[in-house]
């Protein structure tokens, strides 16, 4: 069975310029050789610290940023390197929801205008029935039809995100990239938006690439999780497995660093130390080695390949030990 979305070897380097001549002095390796699949109606979460390349992955999928290398296929159709005419058709199938719904909505357009635009552009509504289709979209996203004549500043954050979702939904996409869709919202509102996204997924069979740094949200939302470190996937596994038995020390650290619902829980913690290194000059070998409590000599010289381990994929020389012990203190640093 082939996946709805197939991403292979996705890579994005940003050149770094210096001086008046704007000479290229280096490359920020924002995304390196990223491959994953998303099935119809499935949510793949992409998690990692801020600056790890999560958003760049999301944006290159839709070509809001052009990839340096790799391929993206939606239902077998290549997305990268398509001429603009073809891209219009593909964009209908792939949408994005941003973290800040305020920043992504035009303040001078009413909600009705904002939603009518994609409907008319893609021939999904006519001048005659566009009002009705806008009303339907609003209702599907939990807003009242009378909201249509309001401007973004007249809404709460949660309502604005509902408008953002309605706009993404307008073209009946097969896939939506959700880039930190609830991070800017109050915790009480987050659950409502997450539940709306889940309802819409069930109703329309949409696949999500769900970008987030919030593990609690991801645990609730995702079927599978890909953990990204310095632009590379270091672990990918079904959600329950990843939280129960992380196989990569970085995944373990992220889980340890996340706030726990039960403060009485007696699990040894190994919180993450040090900052994310620069993607301009990533560390040798395993890029996580300067922060890894399990790092050995091998880790400093040899980059671990992303390999299959049970249901997971993991890039760590000692993944078996991490999985078996569950703790990062098992091996003494050399
Ligand atoms: Fe740590 Fe080595 Fe595994 Fe990298 S390969 S995560 S440094 S143990
Ligand atoms: Mg981001």
Bound molecules: iron/sulfur cluster, magnesium ion
For the record, give the distance between the C-alpha atoms at the N and C termini, rounded to a whole number: 44 Å
Count of separate DSSP helical elements? 12
The gross shape turns out to be globular
Strand content: 15-25%
> What's the CATH architecture of the largest domain?
3-Layer(aba) Sandwich
Oligomer: single chain
CATH structural fold name of the largest domain: Rossmann fold
Specify the CATH homologous superfamily of the largest domain.
P-loop containing nucleotide triphosphate hydrolases
CATH class of the largest domain: Alpha Beta
Strand order of the largest sheet: 6-7-8-3-9-10-12-11
Number of strands: 12
Helix-strand string: EEEHEEHEHHHHEHEHEEHHHEEH
Rg measurement, Å: 21 Å
Pfam families: ABC_tran (PF00005), oligo_HPY (PF08352)
Family: Belongs to the ABC transporter superfamily.
Protein name: Peptide ABC transporter substrate-binding protein
GO molecular function: ATP binding; ATP hydrolysis activity
């Amino acid at each position: 069975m082939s996946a709805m979305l197939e991403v292979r070897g996705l890579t994005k380097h940003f050149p770094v310029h210096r001086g008046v001549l704007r000479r290229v002095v280096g490359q920020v390796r924002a995304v390196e050789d990223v491959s994953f699949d998303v099935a119809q109606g499935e949510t793949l979460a992409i998690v990692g610290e801020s600056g790890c390349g999560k958003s760049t992955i999301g944006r290159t999928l839709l070509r809001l940023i052009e990839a340096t290398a790799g391929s993206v296929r939606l239902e077998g159709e290549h997305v990268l390197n398509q001429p603009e005419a073809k891209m219009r058709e593909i964009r209908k199938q792939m949408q994005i929801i941003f973290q800040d719904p305020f920043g992504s909505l035009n303040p001078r357009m009413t909600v009705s205008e904002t939603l009518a635009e994609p409907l008319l552009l893609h021939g999904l509504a006519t001048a005659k029935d566009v009002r009705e289709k806008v009303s339907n979209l609003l209702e599907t996203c939990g807003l009242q039809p009378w909201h249509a004549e309001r401007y973004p500043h007249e809404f709460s954050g949660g309502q604005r995100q509902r408008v953002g979702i309605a706009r993404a939904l307008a073209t009946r996409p097969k896939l939506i990239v959700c880039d930190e869709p609830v991070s800017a919202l109050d915790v009480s509102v987050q659950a409502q938006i997450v539940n709306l996204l889940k309802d819409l997924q069930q109703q329309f069979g949409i696949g999500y690439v769900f970008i987030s740094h919030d593990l609690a949200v991801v645990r609730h939302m995702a079927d599978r999780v890909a953990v990204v470190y310095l632009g590379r996937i270091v672990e990918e596994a079904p959600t329950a497995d990843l939280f129960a038995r992380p196989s990569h020390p970085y995944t373990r650290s992220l889980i340890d660093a996340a706030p726990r619902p039960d403060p009485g829980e007696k699990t040894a913690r190994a919180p993450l130390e040090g900052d994310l290194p620069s993607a301009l000059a990533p560390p040798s070998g395993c890029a996580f080695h300067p922060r890894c409590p399990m790092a050995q000599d091998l880790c400093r010289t040899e980059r671990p390949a992303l390999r299959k381990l049970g249901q997971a994929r993991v890039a760590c020389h000692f993944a078996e030990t991490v999985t078996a012990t569950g703790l990062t203190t098992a091996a003494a640093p050399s």
